[in-house]
Design brief:
single chain, 59% helix
Protein backbone atom coordinates (compact mmCIF):
# COMPACT_ATOMS: atom_id res chain seq x y z
CA UNK A 1 0.00 0.00 0.00
CA UNK A 2 2.92 2.35 0.61
CA UNK A 3 3.82 2.40 -3.10
CA UNK A 4 0.29 3.39 -4.11
CA UNK A 5 0.39 6.25 -1.57
CA UNK A 6 3.71 7.45 -3.00
CA UNK A 7 2.27 7.46 -6.52
CA UNK A 8 -0.86 9.38 -5.45
CA UNK A 9 0.95 12.04 -3.40
CA UNK A 10 3.15 14.98 -4.32
CA UNK A 11 1.76 15.83 -7.76
CA UNK A 12 3.29 19.15 -8.71
CA UNK A 13 3.92 20.68 -12.09
CA UNK A 14 7.47 19.37 -12.02
CA UNK A 15 6.28 15.83 -11.31
CA UNK A 16 3.85 16.02 -14.25
CA UNK A 17 6.72 17.12 -16.50
CA UNK A 18 9.03 14.37 -15.27
CA UNK A 19 6.40 11.64 -15.68
CA UNK A 20 5.50 13.00 -19.11
CA UNK A 21 9.10 13.03 -20.32
CA UNK A 22 9.76 9.54 -18.94
CA UNK A 23 6.62 8.26 -20.61
CA UNK A 24 7.63 9.91 -23.88
CA UNK A 25 11.05 8.20 -23.80
CA UNK A 26 9.40 4.90 -22.92
CA UNK A 27 6.75 5.17 -25.65
CA UNK A 28 9.16 6.13 -28.42
CA UNK A 29 11.56 3.35 -27.43
CA UNK A 30 8.80 0.75 -27.41
CA UNK A 31 7.58 1.93 -30.79
CA UNK A 32 11.04 1.76 -32.35
CA UNK A 33 11.92 -1.49 -30.53
CA UNK A 34 15.07 -0.28 -28.81
CA UNK A 35 15.70 -2.24 -25.63
CA UNK A 36 18.18 0.20 -23.99
CA UNK A 37 15.70 3.03 -24.51
CA UNK A 38 12.92 0.95 -22.96
CA UNK A 39 15.07 0.34 -19.89
CA UNK A 40 16.04 4.02 -19.57
CA UNK A 41 12.46 5.19 -20.17
CA UNK A 42 11.15 2.70 -17.62
CA UNK A 43 13.68 3.84 -15.03
CA UNK A 44 12.87 7.53 -15.58
CA UNK A 45 9.14 6.90 -15.42
CA UNK A 46 9.28 4.74 -12.29
CA UNK A 47 11.62 7.14 -10.48
CA UNK A 48 9.46 10.12 -11.32
CA UNK A 49 6.33 8.32 -10.10
CA UNK A 50 7.84 7.17 -6.81
CA UNK A 51 9.85 10.24 -5.78
CA UNK A 52 8.87 13.81 -5.03
CA UNK A 53 11.89 15.31 -6.72
CA UNK A 54 15.36 16.28 -5.75
CA UNK A 55 15.22 19.49 -3.77
CA UNK A 56 12.13 21.10 -5.24
CA UNK A 57 9.83 19.42 -2.72
CA UNK A 58 11.74 20.86 0.24
CA UNK A 59 12.67 17.45 1.63
CA UNK A 60 16.37 18.26 1.87
CA UNK A 61 16.02 21.88 2.97
CA UNK A 62 17.00 22.57 6.57
CA UNK A 63 15.91 26.00 7.78
CA UNK A 64 18.20 27.92 10.12
CA UNK A 65 16.43 28.59 13.38
CA UNK A 66 16.76 31.84 15.29
CA UNK A 67 18.11 29.91 18.27
CA UNK A 68 21.09 28.77 16.19
CA UNK A 69 21.82 32.36 15.16
CA UNK A 70 21.65 33.63 18.74
CA UNK A 71 24.16 31.00 19.89
CA UNK A 72 26.68 32.18 17.32
CA UNK A 73 26.09 35.84 18.07
CA UNK A 74 24.16 36.55 14.91
CA UNK A 75 25.43 37.18 11.43
CA UNK A 76 28.21 39.65 10.90
CA UNK A 77 28.40 41.52 7.63
CA UNK A 78 31.51 43.06 6.15
CA UNK A 79 31.37 45.69 3.46
CA UNK A 80 33.53 44.71 0.52
CA UNK A 81 35.42 47.19 -1.58
CA UNK A 82 35.24 50.00 1.00
CA UNK A 83 38.30 52.27 1.19
Amino acid sequence: MRIIERIKSGWTTLKFVRVGLGSLILYSSIESGQVPGIIVGGIFTVFSLLTDGVCCAGACYTPVSKADLSKKGGIEYEELGAK
